[in-house]
Amino acid sequence: SGELSCSLPNPRNVHFESVNMKNVLRWSAPEGTGGEVLYKVKYLVYGVGKWIRKPECRNINRTWCDLSSETSDYEEQYYASVKAFLNGMCSDWIETTRFNPLTDTKIDPPMVSVSSTERSISITLTAPEKWRSPEGESVSLLQVYPGLQYNVSVLNKKTKKRWFFSVSNNTLIVPRLEPGTAYCVSAEIYVTTPLLHSGFSKEYCIATLKDK
Amino acid sequence: SVTEIRSGFTAIKANIQARDPVRTLSILSYPHSLHKVQSSGRCCIAHNLFNFYVDKVFKHCKTEDSYINRKISSIANSFLSMKRKLGQCHEENKCMCGQESTEKFKQILANYEGLNVTSAAIKSLGELDILLDWMEKSR
User: Fold this and answer.
1) Does domain B2-24+39-138 match CATH 1.20.1250.10?
2) Measured between CA atoms, how close is B136 to chain A, in angstroms?
3) Terminal Cα distance for chain B, rounded
4) For a 10 Å CB count at each end of chain A, is N or C smaller?
5) Contacts of A148 in chain B (CB under 8 A)
6) Which domains, and CATH codes, for chain A?
């Protein structure tokens, strides 16, 4: 009767992978299968009555599906689900846990730009942007997380002495430095509630000007 | 404080939400998200929600897992102290309840009473991050 029998093993580890609220659903192929399996994806806004199919992820053989635009309202929470098909057989629908974009995303480190005078370094920090669709409006993560702060590390390359600063605004001037000396700066983003850390950026090094 | 509640909830979130199989119903977010409440009504909603969690939710959230139960009771204690603080605002008339916030809270109670008490309590507990996100955003 062409009825599918759902005895195919299930997709595994179905979860959202989110960076700066670019929210991608990922999973692993059912045990013992590989690239020949096809998948369907659906998602649901938590508390709203219906599952919604994602047409661009229908009968795909890759094991990911970008649901960023479907989950872009970070005041809502979401579930997503995947079903596998192979040789007339199918698996069950396998769901993620409840996904909260606000607390479950990872944040990239800030962009760091530095300039120097003889005895000071000026550091400018830029928080990453929230993911947006091509026609979407640019939103900084600073607007999403009002309590966002920066932890900044400054290393004197000669003496290996390191300072740490915690700042809320995005500029920092480090005074009373040695002329003609190389300093390396790295920074991370830190949100207190919900608790989020970006991890430190790579180091940006600059030398203070020599004494005239 | 909110940070203590947040870290306590984060520790049990996956466990508690896994006990709530109903995806298509929400206590706090149906039909409209808390974020749609006007700023003038926020204190009233927060005050009512803290009473709601202390008086109705926590006492029905016993699980077979002692670790989870300990976390729930520490969250409940944090709620009690915040409930007192908000209570003072309410007594000093700084926490007015307009029609919109009254209607919103009535809807929350109706959503709660629409489920059996244990399911409603576990669902409400699993939605704590909805409350916390809204409170932190409204600060």
Assistant:
1) yes
2) 7
3) 13
4) N
5) none
6) 12-102 (2.60.40.10), 111-207 (2.60.40.10)
Structural contact between residues B124 and B30, judged by C-beta atoms closer than 8 angstroms: no
Give the global pTM.
0.92
Distance of CA A49 to CAs A72, A136, B25, B50, B111, Å? 19, 27, 7, 27, 14
Enumerate the residues of chain B whose CB falls inside 8 A of the CB of residue A102.
129, 133
ipTM value: 0.90
Taking only the tens of pLDDT, chain A with its 212 residues reads 456 678 899 999 999 999 999 999 999 999 999 779 999 999 999 999 899 999 999 999 999 999 999 999 999 999 999 999 998 999 999 999 999 999 999 999 999 999 999 999 999 999 999 999 998 899 999 999 988 999 999 999 999 999 999 999 999 999 999 999 999 999 999 998 888 999 999 999 999 999 87
Nearest to B2 among A50, A76, A193 (CB): A193
**Residue carrying the six token digits 């207190």:** A192
Residue from the list B3, B23, B136 with its beta carbon closest to the beta carbon of A46: B23
